[in-house]
């Protein structure tokens, strides 16, 4: 946490992005701070696993809906491309021919 605090302190007050760069700094804990390894509790691990499972389910649902919408769009595109063209309508100025009765 101490190193992260120092990194964020540097990010809040950068000296700029010109020049050779920020000098490398080695961080170590001050003598008054004890070091201890911390591992997540089993409840935290289970909560993270549940969150991941929920996200996977949501992604699966979104993919299924997107696939369904794509299939509908393709089907409509095929149906519209097969639509029969309308018969030629005479335009103004063209003579209309009427077949002889018979």
Oligomer state of the chains in this structure: single chain
Provide mean pLDDT, rounded.
77
The percent of residues in helical segments reads 40-55%
Number of helices: 2
Strand residue content: under 5%
Q: What order do the SSEs take from the amino end to the carboxyl end, as H and E?
A: HH
Q: What Rg do the Cα atoms give?
A: 36 Å
How many E strands? 0
Distance between the termini: 101 Å
Largest sheet: none
Principal-axes shape call: elongated
Poorly predicted parts:
none
Output the structural class: mainly alpha
Q: What key attributes describe this structure?
A:
elongated, 102 residues, mainly alpha
Quick take:
With 102 residues, this protein is an all-alpha fold.
Folded structure, characterized:
This protein has 102 residues and is mainly α. It contains 2 helices and no strands. The longest helix is centred in the middle third of the chain and has 40 residues, at 42-81. It is elongated and about 115 Å long. The N and C termini lie far apart (101 Å).
Produce the secondary structure layout.
Layout: H1 2-12, H2 42-81
């Amino acid at each position: 946490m101490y190193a992260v605090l120092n990194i964020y302190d540097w990010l809040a007050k950068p000296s700029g992005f010109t020049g050779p760069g920020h000098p490398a700094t080695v961080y170590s804990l001050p003598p008054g701070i004890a070091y201890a390894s911390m591992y997540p509790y089993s409840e935290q691990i289970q909560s993270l696993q549940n969150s991941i499972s929920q996200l996977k389910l949501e992604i699966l649902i979104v993919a299924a809906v997107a696939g369904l919408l794509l299939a509908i769009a393709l089907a409509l595109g095929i149906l519209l491309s097969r639509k029969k063209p309308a018969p030629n309508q005479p335009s103004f100025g063209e003579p209309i021919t009427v077949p002889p009765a018979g």
